[in-house]
Amino acid sequence: YSNFETKFLNKDYILSKMNGNQFYLQIGREVESGFEKYIYQSGLPEETIKNLFTEEIIKNDVISIVNCVYDGTEINLSSQIIRNNLDNKIEQYLQSEGKNANEQVRENINKFEDLIVNEYNNNINISEELYTEAHLLIEKCNVVVEKIGNMPIIIIGIFVVLIILLNIKNLALALNFLSISILAVGVLIKLGITTIYSNINIDNLLILTNSISNLVISIIKEIIYEFDKISTTCVVLGVLGIAIYAIFKSLKSEKSINKY
Fold first, then answer.
1. What are the CA-CA distances from residue 241 to residues 42, 156, 169, 245, 251 (Å)?
2. How far is C-alpha 201 from the geometric centre of its chain's CA atoms?
3. Contact by Cβ (8 Å): 53, 25
4. Which of 11, 22, 88 has the alpha carbon at shortest distance from 58?
5. What's the pLDDT tens digit per position in 45-84?
6. Rounded Cα gap, residues 190 and 206, in angstroms
7. How many Cβ atoms sit within 10 Å of the Cβ of residue 133?
8. What is the spatial distance between Cα 34 and Cα 118, in angstroms, rounded to a whole number?
9. Radius of gyration over alpha carbons of the chain, in Å?
């Protein structure tokens, strides 16, 4: 529960995952790959569409989108920088070839620049509507988390106290009951994880683009890992509690035999 709040609803956590998964580098490759389908139509050299942006520009634009998702701010992309860089490269090429750009050529250049800028925008800002919906969802989750507060811990605490009170005359039996319950929770979680892995090929999930897919896969695996840690703890505590109860019961039986 606390991991859900401090990680998956936390903007800084998502940004740290992006930094750790070469997210910006992958997006850059996808953007340049998208540029290539236009260069052959234009008659310009391939070098014209290379290095139109830096990883820092990609990072700033992605952060703008993350801010939109988490804070509801407006998305601001570096479209004009891309256009200016492209325009400068085209001008350099024309000058090196000794060509003058007449009105028709300039119109064609503007159309080409529009295509490249739109390709950049579409690769970075895949769906503004989707990001807006994500922001609304995160806001609702934050409201739910705020309302729930420490309720899960309180409920577990009440459950433990009730078990003890119902078995106040036999605390060993209460320990055994709690241990079995904890063990059952751990086993159920592990069965759930096994079911997920057997029915879903997580490593080959494709969500929008490869870069987003890799990010989502990384987050999903971390969620599953967190649940796996909880299940392992439950299983260990459950088995330990049952073993203690068995030892206590065995010792008690020996005392009863020796008494007679």
1. 73, 17, 18, 6, 15
2. 17
3. no
4. 22
5. 888 888 999 999 999 999 999 999 889 888 899 999 999 9
6. 25
7. 12
8. 10
9. 30
170-190 tens-digit pLDDT:
777 788 888 888 999 999 999
- The number of helices, as runs of H, and strands, as runs of E, in the chain is 10, 0
Q: What angle do CA 18, 22, 23 make, to 5 degrees?
A: 50
The one-letter amino acid code at 249 reads: K
Rounded to an integer, what distance in angstroms lies between the CA atom of residue 21 and that of residue 222? 13
- Euclidean distance between the first and final Cα of the chain, in Å? 52
DSSP letters spanning 11-58 = HHHHHHHHHHTTHHHHHHHHHHHHHHHHHHHHT--GGGGTTSS-HHHH
CB 153 within 8 A of CB 205: no
Cα distances (Å, whole numbers) of residue 134 to 33, 49, 69, 131, 137: 27, 33, 6, 5, 5
d(CA 91, CA 93): 5
Task: Please name which of 118, 136, 141, 145 lies closest in space to residue 68, comparing C-alpha atoms.
Answer: 136
Indicate the pTM of the whole model. Answer: 0.74
Distances (CA, A) of 21 to 11, 31, 214: 16, 17, 8
Contact 128, 75 (CB under 8 A): yes
Q: How open is the CA angle 58-62-63, to the nearest 5 degrees?
A: 115
- The answer to whether 180 and 163 have CB atoms below 8 angstroms apart is no
Report the candidate in 29, 208, 31 with the shortest Cα–Cα distance to residue 120.
31
